[in-house]
Write a structure and sequence with these properties.
This protein is of the alpha/beta class. It contains 11 helices and 13 strands.
Length: 408
């Protein structure tokens, strides 16, 4: 009952936000500028259609056939991003107008209409420019981001060990089989020691998208391909998806750990369920204690956790390195500042005591088919043996390229 009430409250809140946002846009950008009747009616119809798209898409994703989902997903995705920038730009200009208006005489009716028209035209122009830049960035291949981290317990025999991290792929109606196949080719070209997927692999039911993820069967790494669950994997039906991915040769770390390597040339690789799994499932929850139980404390441990919020407890538990995603780096500016309200770890490399965290900006995208000041990435993590326990972490090497690197 608690879960049903939470879902109902979330749906009610999102419906209210979407409805309120679209009413706000209609009032400020269409009605107050007093446009010609034909233009007013056309723009109101566009805003209403955008609202209907966003409200209908979740139902379509669950119940409609694949072709219909794709046809609806693209316009809904574009309107989500464009509408977001319309709201942001309108709110910013309203705030600026309020600040300027506080020191000026109230304008007459004609001047107010002119100001409303100038505002509407400016807002639409800004939203179009930001949306266009964001769409172009989202459709580019993810950049290759190489970082180095030095760990005091890392075995010298594995110095230079290379982990390729994919995160937040969101394979679904927008990012499909072609995107998955291109990622496999790029990862394999890096010839990694280990490939990890840190959650949100899919967006949709397994019977709808099994063919779209099939290329992941081609992922290759010396020590295997491992994954953990993300919140969207839970929304999509986590157990069928875990079974599907394991049939493709990927191995799940669901509150457990494995030993990578042999003897002194080894480390622990652990993984936990999504941080909010208990809100969706009666049977699953994040359990860091179970994932680390019985381990040799002298051996380094790398933790895969979709949500960086796990890092607070992971650092206290002595985890050497945590790899996470979930935030998308904010995905579209200035949304990253809202993300920071829920977690201090938005993107990049962080340190707490002897523990380090790397938060990927994500390899795909969710919601708007846009990325603004938050470039998608395929991450190559090079792990070094620190010279001393107090050696500082290496900062991210912002050497990024959208093309596949040469084979080594």
């Amino acid at each position: 009952m608690r879960r049903i009430l939470l879902v109902a409250a979330f749906i009610a809140l999102m419906t209210a936000v979407l409805t309120g946002g679209h009413v706000y846009l209609a009032r400020r950008l269409v009605l107050q500028p007093e446009l010609a009747p034909w233009l007013r009616d056309a723009l109101l119809a566009v805003i209403a259609a955008g609202a209907a798209l966003l409200l209908a898409q979740p139902l379509c994703d669950r119940f409609a056939p694949p072709a219909a989902r794709r046809w609806l997903a693209w316009p809904a995705s574009l309107w989500m991003g464009f509408g977001f920038y319309l709201v942001v730009a309108t709110s910013a200009t309203d705030l600026l107008g309020a600040l300027l208006g506080a020191a000026a005489a109230a304008p007459g009716p004609a001047a107010a209409v002119t100001a409303a028209r100038v505002q509407a035209a400016s807002v639409v122009l800004v939203a179009l420019l930001a949306g266009g830049v964001g769409l172009r960035a989202a459709l580019r291949p993810p950049a290759l981001r190489r970082i180095e981290v030095a760990l005091s317990r890392w075995p010298r025999a594995l110095d230079g060990f290379r982990i390729v991290q994919l995160s937040d792929l969101h394979i679904g109606p927008v990012l499909d089989r072609r995107f998955a196949a291109a990622l496999v080719e790029r990862c394999n070209a890096l010839e990694p020691d280990l490939v990890v997927l840190t959650g949100d692999v899919v967006d949709g039911r397994v019977d709808h998208l099994a063919d779209e993820v099939a290329p992941f069967a081609g992922l290759r790494a010396r020590h295997g391909v491992w994954f953990v669950t993300g919140n969207h994997d839970y929304y999509s039906g986590v157990d069928p998806w875990v079974a599907c991915l394991e049939r493709l040769g990927l191995r799940a770390l669901r509150n457990r750990r494995v030993v990578i390597g042999d003897g002194e040339a080894s480390f622990d690789l652990a993984g936990v369920e999504d941080h909010h799994a208990h809100l969706v499932s009666d049977r699953h929850r994040e359990d860091l204690d179970a994932a680390l139980a019985g381990r040799d404390p002298s051996r380094a441990v790398v933790l895969l956790a979709h949500d960086p919020a796990t890092f607070a407890r992971a650092a206290r538990a002595g985890v050497d390195l945590q790899l996470s995603g979930h935030t998308h780096g904010g995905q579209i500016w200035p949304f990253r500042y809202l993300v920071r309200l829920s977690t201090p770890w938005v993107a990049g490399l962080y340190r707490r005591g002897a523990s380090q965290l790397y938060v990927s900006r994500g390899t795909g995208f969710w919601g708007p088919a846009m990325r603004v000041l938050a470039e998608a990435e395929v991450t190559e993590v090079v792990v070094r043996a620190a010279l001393t326990p107090s050696s500082p972490p290496t900062t991210p090497a912002d050497t990024t390229t959208p093309s596949a690197p040469p084979r080594r």
